[in-house]
Automatic annotation (TrEMBL):
Protein name: 5'-Nucleotidase domain protein
Domain (5'-Nucleotidase C-terminal) ranges: 352-499
Coiled-coil blocks: none
Domain Calcineurin-like phosphoesterase: start-end pairs: 37-258
Amino acid sequence: MMRRSKHTFHVLCSPIFLVLVSVLVLAPLAWAEVSTLTILHTNDHHGHFAKFSPYGSPDSGGLAAQSTLVNIVRAEVEEAGGHTLLLSAGDVNMGVPESDMLDAEPDFKLMNLLGYDAMTLGNHEFDKPREVLLKQQEWAEFPFLSANIVKKDSGEYLVEPYIIKEFDGLNVAIFGLTTEESPILVTPDNVKDLEFKDIIETAKALVPKLREEADVVIALTHLGFFENSGGGYNSAGDIKLAKEVPGIDVIVGGHSHDALTEAEVVGNTLIVHGGEWSKFVGRLDLTIDTEANKVTDHTYRLLPVNLKKRVSYNDKEYFMYSGVGYVEDKVIVEAMQPYLSQADELLSQPIGEALVKLDGDRKLVRAQETNLANIVTDSMCAKTGAEIALQNGGGIRSDIEQGTITYRDVLKVQPFGNTLVLVDMTGAQIMELLNYAATIQPGNGAFLQVAGLTWTLNRKTGAAENVQVGGQPINLEQTYKVVTNNFMGAGGDGYATLKDLPKIDTGYVDADSLREYIAEKGKVGAAVEGRLTIVE
């Protein structure tokens, strides 16, 4: 048996040896350059600059409460020696009358006060003519980003493709991406001079360059939380982007209105989404090894902006905060008041009464016939004298609660300012359109709502069946007078059948036609009538 030398034992236990071992083990940790970065983010804001009551949660959301939340987090992060970013993943526009009437001026100017660092362009930034977008860029004191939108005539970027922010030696690259489906999601004339380039190819070309310039690469996207969109251009979503483009540390996304309660990890990429309407602020805390240009740790949570939950007791209802409650920032409250006053008088005027709740929730109106969709399409026929009305479900944006109906309620239902378009269509052309509509999956904005005809959507065959117009089987040779909105008439939502047909734009705004229809009726209590039958 070999005996251990006493000298060896003393060496191993000597203080000098232990110190040397400690230095060798701990040196890499001590020498590593570590930074912390907190990303605060929102998406699909859709004009909700003031507090509102989503689904019975009173006085929720709003940029005044969000300002308090954001600044509390900033104070905490700065005290700990970290850095913060505040980002928007697009669709600031469209959804609330007070904002829509003012071209979202209150939203962009209040976002300045909150200190947003950047925003990517969403498809709803193109719902109005280009002049409006240019005006919004002037209002905003932060950059609009998109690396895959270029001008057809020159190939120049419409807005900045990316920015690099520097925090005490930490370089953070942020680049924007916008869904390739935008040309069919907005009025085509508004983007006819633009090319929405392939998302994956754009990112593959840009990310390696950004990796050379930055410690962290963030994709600020308006693509949706999925592999592919499943309609129109079948545009790539955030999951596909993460899988196919290496080198992206974080995807801050929007478009699909998903509220992710934890970061989705795909390979080495984190994906976060913050829901909709600025009801939440997403908070992603990163630990970054700047020597290795690598995110080494993260935590993520959704912070509700004064959302409430209902508690019932003794047949009474009470509300409590879903998390922390935030006192509204007085500076923001004062800044928004002139905008609210400017719109209130017109919007608050009563125009009629709903005898029942009128269903326009996106989960319903993009998947089945609803009573509100029937009123919308009936109003289109009433205004124009058309036999048939065609309306995309995605163009109906809100419920109308039972009780008094105001102009504000109507504008929430139809906020886009679309005009009614008349087109003559043969029965064969209508069948072609219906067969396309039969391929639309539930949840897609292209889901079709109608008046003047009934039909069966057979999901087994993916075809339209049992089509009747005015109670009679459709005649493929007969010509019918059809009304739709100018968005669909230009081929929006993939309705290519309509695109090349001769049309007359009546100039009638869809929301005004709906308002007139409700005002004429006085009281409305529409029902689901069996205009659409779905066979699974």
